[in-house]
Each structure stands twice: as C-alpha cells, then as structure tokens.
C-alpha cells in the first residue's frame, strides 16, 4: 500500500492511495491517525523556526542542484524533442542535465553544474525562438550554393543568403569566375557571420537574410 497524505493540523487537504488489493477500513483509519501525528511534528518544527526569526537563504547551497525554467509556445515542443527524441538526448548529454517538458509549454532543466545548466537554458531558448524580421543574428554557413549560401540561425533554422545581399553587385560582376566563384572565395562552410533577417514567408516559413544590411546597421550604431 502506498498512502500519501497532506494537510494542516486539523484537515486533510490532499491524499493519494495506491493498492494492489482491498485494504481494511481499520488500516486506513490507523494510517490517517499516524499521518496527522507526523504532520504535527513537522508543523511544530516549522513554527519553531519561524519564531526564532528564520530567514530563508538568499542563495542556495553550492551543492544544491541547479534548476532553470524556460516557457515556450507549446506548439514548438517538437523542436526540443527532435526526430525520435534525438535533440532532447543531445541536450542532456552535451550539458549533463535532465530535461522535463510539460504539455503547457514549460521546459525544466536540472543539473549539478550551474554553468552548464545556464548554457542549456540558452540553447533551449534559441531552439524555441522565432526569427524576427529586422533583427541581426550570428549565423553559421552550412551549405554553399552557386547563387549564395544557406545560413543556420538560432541552432535549427535555415535561411537563404543570396549573393546580391552579400556585397555590392559590382564586386560580383568583376570576379573572373562569376557568381559561383565569388561565393566560393568569400564564404566557407562553418564560417560564422552576422546577418539581418529581411523577410520571413508566413506560409512556407522560409527566411531571407542580408549580410549587407547587417554591416550597415553595425556601422550606423
């Protein structure tokens, strides 16, 4: 029998009973009496601490596990789980954390290393964030095209950087190998660059970015 009981000195406010076979009433009655006595012992200790001027810790003990919470749109839960749970497992392995996801859109992260837990929180926030038009992002080039490049933003979102948004057209036209040659000479897979989002297709979700626009913003700042 698994019998959990919670309440005040005089009232039971919650209980949970798990049994595999019928339980006699006298056993339940005895359990309720024992639970009340146990609650009173705990409440006595709590009241004594408060009377002595108990002050909660301003900071948890260094040995206490770290906990972080991220709220997100519940429809983005699949982005955190990934195909077959691969994204969730990678997060837990990379940052040595345990992750719980709720149906309401809360991500709970637990770990022994506070620094790693905070890094995990930052990664989760990127994974569930939406790319906003007009914002500047640090992107990673993941693929080169004859007409530009595919840039990864916020760890899991791909955007198109067309060569016309990379630099002035005159530089491209003057290249001896044309557009494709210019792209190969100026962009490399794995390279990180700042880009500005210049458009998000509301239907298909495709994203367009500009290197030129980001550089202009940086210079004007």
Automatic annotation (TrEMBL):
GO CC, sorted alphabetically, is:
cytosol; mitochondrion
Which GO molecular function annotation, any one, does this entry have?
Answer: 3'-5'-RNA exonuclease activity
Query: Cross-referenced Pfam families, in alphabetical order?
Result: S1
Q: Name one GO biological process term.
A: mitochondrial mRNA catabolic process
Transferase is among the record's keywords: yes
Q: Which keywords, in A-to-Z order, does the entry hold?
A: Nucleotidyltransferase, RNA-binding, Transferase
Looking up CDD domains in the UniProt record yields: KH-I_PNPase
What the entry lists under InterPro entries is as follows: ExoRNase_PH_dom2_sf, KH_dom, KH_dom_type_1_sf, NA-bd_OB-fold, PNPase, PNPase/RNase_PH_dom_sf, S1_domain
Q: Which SMART domains match?
A: KH, S1
The S1 motif domain is annotated at 134-212
Q: Please state what the protein is called.
A: S1 motif domain-containing protein
In which organism is this protein found?
Amphora coffeiformis
């Amino acid at each position: 029998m698994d019998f959990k009981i919670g309440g005040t000195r005089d009232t039971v406010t919650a209980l949970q009973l798990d049994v595999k076979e019928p339980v006699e009433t006298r056993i339940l009655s005895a359990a309720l009496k024992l639970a009340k006595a146990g609650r009173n012992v705990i409440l006595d200790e709590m009241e004594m601490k408060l009377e002595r001027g108990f002050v909660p810790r301003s900071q948890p003990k260094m040995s206490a596990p770290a906990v972080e919470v991220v709220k997100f749109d519940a429809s983005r839960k699949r982005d955190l789980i990934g195909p077959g749970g691969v994204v969730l497992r990678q997060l837990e392995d990379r940052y040595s954390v345990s992750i719980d996801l709720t149906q309401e859109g809360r991500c709970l992260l637990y770990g022994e290393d506070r620094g790693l837990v905070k890094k995990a929180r930052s990664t989760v926030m990127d994974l569930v964030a939406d790319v906003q038009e007009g914002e500047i992002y640090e992107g990673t080039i993941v693929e080169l095209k004859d007409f530009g490049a595919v840039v990864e933003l916020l760890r899991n979102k791909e955007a198109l950087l067309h060569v016309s948004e990379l630099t002035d057209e005159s530089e491209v036209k003057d290249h001896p190998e044309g557009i494709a040659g210019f792209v190969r000479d100026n962009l490399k897979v794995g390279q990180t660059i700042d880009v500005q989002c210049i458009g998000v297709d509301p239907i298909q979700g495709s994203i367009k970015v500009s290197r030129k626009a980001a550089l202009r913003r940086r210079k004007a700042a």
